[in-house]
Amino acid sequence: MAVLSDIDINNALVSGRIKIESADPEGVRSSIHAASVDLTLGRYFKIYDHTKLAILDPKEKELISSVMRTIEIEDSKPFIIQPGEFVLGVTQEIVSIADDLMARLEGRSSIGRLGVIIHATAGLVNPGFSGSFTLEISNINRMPIALYPGMHICQISFEEMTTRVSESYADKKESKYQHQVLPEASKIHQDKGF
Predict the structure, then answer these.
(1) 28: enclosing H helix or E strand
(2) How many other CB atoms sit within 10 Å of the CB of residue 63?
(3) pLDDT in tens, 164-182
(4) Which residues are identified as catalytic?
(5) pTM
(6) Which of 48, 49, 31 is nearest to 40 (CA)?
(7) Backbone dihedral region for residue 14 (phi beyond 0: left; psi -120 to 50: alpha; all else: beta)
(8) C-alpha to C-alpha distance for 88 and 170, rounded to whole angstroms
(9) Quick check: 157 and 35 in contact, CB under 8 A?
(10) Whole-angstrom distance, CA of residue 74 vs CA of residue 150
(11) What would the pLDDT profile of 44-103 be if each residue is shown by its tens digit?
(12) Cα–Cα distance for residue pair 128/51, rounded to 1 Å
């Protein structure tokens, strides 16, 4: 596999192998770096109401989503993430990738230096995925941190597969997060054999 350069990313955007839907298409073009594209933070967050349960049990099918609530932040207002807090956020952009590409979502160094982690484990984006990205945001700093809708929060890089996949994420019946727009709670209860 080979990582796409800025030239390859631009070519893939022109050909439609990569689509990045944004309210600011020019902003997307200016966010392309040598081997990645910056993505911005959306206005929606899902937070856990830890007072409702003593434990999160992934075998309890609807339990996880029942202890979460979605909040919307005004564009000019910050979302304050407290020390030790874990929330789900979302990118403003909707990204679609061809079935011969995969992608990796990573935090930005400038955000990491504040103590913000943008994904716990979900950095790999499968071929054929289309949707916004749910961000698993943690504050490991001792101080609260202000996050603003529209700020550059993470970056995505793309890798070319050696061949097209036999079944893309879009074609799999078990694709739990295809076409997500808001932050999505865990759907682990839908896993086969769980």
Answers:
(1) helix 25-30
(2) 16
(3) 888 877 777 777 777 778 7
(4) 136
(5) 0.88
(6) 31
(7) alpha
(8) 23
(9) yes
(10) 11
(11) 999 988 777 777 777 776 666 678 899 999 978 999 999 999 999 999 999 999 999 999
(12) 38
